[in-house]
Amino acid sequence: RVCTESGMTCFAVNSAWDHTHVLLSMHKNIPISDIAKRLKGRTAFRWNKHHASNRHDKLHWQSGYTSITIRQCDIKTVQHYIRRQKEHHCEDAPSEALREEFEHTP
C-alpha cells in the first residue's frame, strides 16, 4: 500500500529478523533516499498506530539502507529470493544465498 500511494510498483516484500527486503520499481527522478524515508516513515507510523500496544511494541527503523539495481529479466529470481528470506537466513549468509539464486537461474 505504501508503494502504491507513492507511485511505485511493489513486486515483493518480506522480512528476516533484523531487516526487510523490498523489490519495487520506481520513477527515475525520485531519489532513493526519499523512497527509503517514505517506506520507513509510513510503515512505522501505520504499525505503531495499529499494532503497538505499548512503547516496547513500537517499530523503530535503524538509520541507513542498502539499494541495488537489477535487470528486468532478474525480477522473478529476486522475488523468489525475497519470498524465502527466513529460509535463506537459516541456511546461509544472505549474500551467499542470493549469489546461488542467480547462478542457478536458467
What string, H for helix and E for strand, traces the elements in order?
A: HEEHHHH
Question: pLDDT under 50 segments (min length 5)?
Answer: 101-106
Mean of residue pLDDT values: 78
Strand order of the largest sheet: 1-2
DSSP strand content: 5-15%
Helix content: 40-55%
Compute the number of helices.
Answer: 5
Specify the structural class: alpha+beta
Q: Give the biggest beta sheet.
A: 2 strands, antiparallel
The radius of gyration over CA amounts to 15 Å
Shape: globular
Distance between the termini: 32 Å
The total of beta strands comes to 2
Overview of this protein structure:
It contains five helices and two strands, in the order H-E-E-H-H-H-H. The chain has 106 residues and is an alpha+beta fold. The protein has a two-stranded antiparallel ribbon. Strand 1 and strand 2 form a beta hairpin. It is globular. It starts with a helix and ends with a helix. The C terminus is likely disordered.
Describe the protein's topology.
Blueprint: H1 2-5, E1 9-15, E2 20-25, H2 32-50, H3 75-83, H4 85-91, H5 94-103
Antiparallel strand pairs: 1-2
Structural key phrases:
106 residues, alpha+beta, two-stranded antiparallel ribbon, 5 helices, 46% helix, globular, disordered C terminus
Compact overview of the structure:
By secondary structure, this protein is of the alpha+beta class. It has 5 helices and 2 strands, in the order αββαααα.
